């Protein structure tokens, strides 16, 4: 084999494990889901093989699914904004700190060592009727009766922020860390105040990181179902909960497949828009 | 004597040979690849060829699993050498979905609740035919409990009845008196006075059963369906949380997040034993159910039958029942059940179970597709 041929083959050999994994674990199951979405559920719960548009018709025309989808996108958007507001100052502090950057990053990563479900459930012990916060407020005499703080949309958003904040901080940090601090010094030397140099120099340069963090938070937030299940009240369901219910509770895999594809298309479109205007490179940096 | 070794040991020995230079890299990777391919090819037919060194059991988790592990599975393994691997589920629907996605033989025995679940499994072709001669302890079981299963599977059995209980009303006596409960019955779950302190199981059957009681209808024959859905909506608007497992039910009541909910008799008894002042009441036509140990099609039958017979042995069954706080399916007219079991909620000393109302499987399964879907919507505010 010639050297050129060997060199041309090498990237494919190196990519083969990743391509195989993506094909077997993502592409093939996705094809199954697409096929399933055109089947029907029979009265006994068995699947009727065929090509039926009933599930798609229901998913696209029923107001119920549309409303929950919008509500899901709204909750994901609020979560993303809160993460951005809380995450940016934290990322800025880490990026500009001297000496203890590694330690701070390690602290940021620490929650990932604990299961997401455990982290979500920890809020029950903090905000519950006999939880830490109520106990504290009652012991200092601020309240006499425990407050009902759990099982509503606010606690769902709180749980999501708790889960997603590190993703935002990491992405913004990567962006800020790559900005040459001499640029700020130059702005200051030309008469800009610290605030002006931040607004006109640092913030615009860090926007790709903020956008990448925002995209991650939004997509992960919109696809979650554990948080509303654990911290939500009877009405606080998100779109992924509908998929769960269709597949698990109603044993309606065809409808569940159509619904999951619907969510995938909406979130996929968002990623495409992001890629069109900002590119995926920044996102890869943040994830790396 | 040759000793059987497991796959991990085989791999470790192979790796050791490779690391010591006794095997070249190409052969090592080739053998690993061949093993992987063989596993993939054989998996669908595993149940047909397995040597039955283990049986998989899936149940409700929590105190129920603990009772089964300590009193049935560990002694069974010590006696037969067959290991019982136990998993858990939050509800029958969730488990059925898992079984549907599995390969034959992957799941073996399930602790199913209600004849309607048994009928659903039968409808999906998941039942098998047990050899009852290999389960002689079946003779001790309450006949009525066995017969309802036989009716579904044309006289044969794919399960053995194991215990029974009720889904009654559980309430915190610190906030709700026994008198108030007696007066309001099932309607306490839609009582404005307890808004924000009411709970409920996120199971459509239980919601509709209690809605039937709240609207004065027969739970096995609702005539005004819309009135029931209105009652479900009313409950939803007053409830703090739908619970999804026995552990969550116990936590919500013990932490006083909720003051009243419907609850599983055994779990509430367990809370009472832990010292919580939780009352329990079965309203008229309260939800009675019987649980069975169901053997799924494709399972190693002989091992499963041996385990079922062991579990139905009066000594085992009574110990499990005392641990999980649900009366066993053993007939009190045939077996002395000891001192504790007669004190358990829902226990029927006559063995006729005439005092309990069970779900009619045809009626409930006939409404399953429509009602589970409607409940999904009602639950979310529709």
Name the features.
heterodimer, A: 288 residues, mainly alpha, 13 helices, 75% helix, globular, B: 382 residues, D-Maltodextrin-Binding Protein, domain 2, eight-stranded mixed sheet
Summarize the structure in short.
The complex is a heterodimer of chains A (288) and B (382). Chain A is mostly helical and 288 residues long. In chain A, 75% of the residues lie in helices and 1% in strands.
Q: Detail the poorly predicted runs of chain A.
A: none
**CATH architecture group name of chain A:** Orthogonal Bundle
- Identify the CATH homologous superfamily of the largest domain in chain B: Periplasmic binding protein-like II
CATH C-level label of the largest domain in chain B? Alpha Beta
Structural class of chain B: alpha/beta
The quaternary organization reads as: heterodimer
Rg from alpha-carbon coordinates of chain A: 24 Å
CATH topology descriptor of the largest domain in chain B: D-Maltodextrin-Binding Protein, domain 2
For this structure, what is the CATH class of chain A? Mainly Alpha
Distance between the termini of chain A: 36 Å
Percentage of residues in strands of chain A: under 5%
Whole-number average pLDDT of chain A? Answer: 92
Q: CATH homologous superfamily of chain A?
A: MetI-like
What does this protein structure show overall?
- The complex is a heterodimer of chains A (288) and B (382).
- Chain A has helices at residues 3-36, 54-61, 63-96, 101-109, 116-127, 132-139, 153-177, 181-189, 194-222, 226-231, 239-249, 253-277, 281-287, and strands at 40-41, 47-48.
- The radius of gyration of chain A is 24 Å and the shape is globular.
- Chain A has a two-stranded antiparallel sheet.
- Chain A is built from 13 helices and two strands.
- With 288 residues, chain A is mostly helical.
- In chain A, β1 (40-41) and β2 form a beta hairpin.
- In chain B, the strands form two sheets. In chain B, strands 1, 2, 3, 4, 7, 8, 9 and 10 form an eight-stranded mixed sheet that branches.
- In chain B, α9 crosses α10.
- The longest helix of chain B is centred in the N-terminal third of the chain and has 19 residues, at 62-80.
- At the A-B interface, α11 of A face α5, β6 and α15 of B.
């Amino acid at each position: 084999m010639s050297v050129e041929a060997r060199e041309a083959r090498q990237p494919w050999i190196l990519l083969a494990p990743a391509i195989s994994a993506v094909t077997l674990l993502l592409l093939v199951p996705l094809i199954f889901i697409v096929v399933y979405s055109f089947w029907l559920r029979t009265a006994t719960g068995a699947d009727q093989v065929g090509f039926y548009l009933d599930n798609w018709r229901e998913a696209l025309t029923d107001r119920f699914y549309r409303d929950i989808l919008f509500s899901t996108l709204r909750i994901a958007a609020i979560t993303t904004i809160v993460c951005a507001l809380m995450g940016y100052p934290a990322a800025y502090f880490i990026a500009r700190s001297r000496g203890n950057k590694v330690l701070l990053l390690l602290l940021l990563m620490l929650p990932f060592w604990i299961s997401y479900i455990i982290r979500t459930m920890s809020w029950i012990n903090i905000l519950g009727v006999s939880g830490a916060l109520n106990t504290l407020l009652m012991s200092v005499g601020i309240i006499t009766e425990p407050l009902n703080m759990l099982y509503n949309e606010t606690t769902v958003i709180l749980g999501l922020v708790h889960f997603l904040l590190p993703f935002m901080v990491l992405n913004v940090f990567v962006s800020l860390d790559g900005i040459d601090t001499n640029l700020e010094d130059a702005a200051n030397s030309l008469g800009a105040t610290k605030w002006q140099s931040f607004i006109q120099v640092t913030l615009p340069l860090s926007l790709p990181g903020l956008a990448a963090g925002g995209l991650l938070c939004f997509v992960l937030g919109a696809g979650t179902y554990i948080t509303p299940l654990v911290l939500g009240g009877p009405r606080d369901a998100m779109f992924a909960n509908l998929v769960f219910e269709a597949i698990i509770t109603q044993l309606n895999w065809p409808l569940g497949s159509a619904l999951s594809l619907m969510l995938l298309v909406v979130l996929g479109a968002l990623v495409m828009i992001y890629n069109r205007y900002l590119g995926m490179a920044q996102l890869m940096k943040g994830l790396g | 004597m040759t000793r059987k070794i497991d796959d991990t040991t085989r791999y470790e020995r192979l790796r050791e040979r490779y690391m010591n230079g006794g095997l070249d890299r190409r052969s090592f990777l080739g053998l690993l690849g061949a093993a992987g391919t063989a596993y993939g090819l054989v998996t669908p037919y595993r149940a047909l060829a397995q040597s039955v060194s283990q049986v998989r059991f899936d149940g409700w988790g929590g105190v129920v699993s603990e009772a089964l592990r300590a009193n049935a599975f560990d002694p069974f393994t010590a006696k037969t050498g067959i290991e019982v691997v136990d998993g858990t589920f939050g509800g029958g629907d969730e488990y059925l979905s898992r079984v549907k996605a599995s390969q034959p033989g992957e799941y073996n025995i399930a602790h199913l609740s209600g004849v309607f679940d048994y009928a659903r499994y039968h409808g999906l072709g998941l039942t098998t035919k047990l050899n009852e001669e290999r389960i002689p302890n079946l003779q001790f079981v309450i006949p009525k409990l066995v017969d309802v299963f036989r009716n579904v599977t044309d006289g044969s059995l794919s399960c053995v009845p194991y215990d029974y209980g009720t889904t009654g009303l559980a309430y915190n006596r610190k906030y709700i008196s026994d008198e108030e409960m007696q007066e309001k019955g099932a309607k306490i779950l839609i009582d404005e006075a307890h808004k924000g302190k009411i709970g409920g199981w996120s199971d459509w059957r239980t919601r509709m059963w209690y809605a039937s009681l709240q609207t004065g209808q027969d739970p096995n024959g609702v005539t005004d369906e819309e009135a029931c859905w209105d009652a479900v909506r009313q409950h939803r608007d007053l409830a703090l949380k739908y619970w999804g497992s026995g552990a969550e039910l116990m936590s919500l009541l013990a932490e006083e997040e909720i003051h009243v909910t419907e609850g599983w008799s055994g779990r509430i008894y367990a809370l009472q034993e832990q010292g919580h002042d939780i009352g329990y009441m079965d309203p008229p036509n309260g939800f009675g159910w019987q649980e069975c140990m169901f053997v799924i099609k494709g399972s190693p039958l002989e091992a499963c039958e041996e385990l079922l017979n062991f579990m139905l042995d009066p000594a085992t069954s009574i110990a499990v029942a005392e641990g999980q706080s649900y009366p066993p399916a053993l007939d009190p007219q045939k077996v002395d059940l000891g001192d504790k079991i007669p004190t358990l909620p829902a226990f029927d000393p006559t063995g006729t179970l005439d005092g309990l109302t069970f779900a009619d499987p045809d009626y409930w399964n006939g409404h399953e597709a429509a009602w589970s879907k409607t409940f999904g919507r009602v639950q979310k505010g529709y």
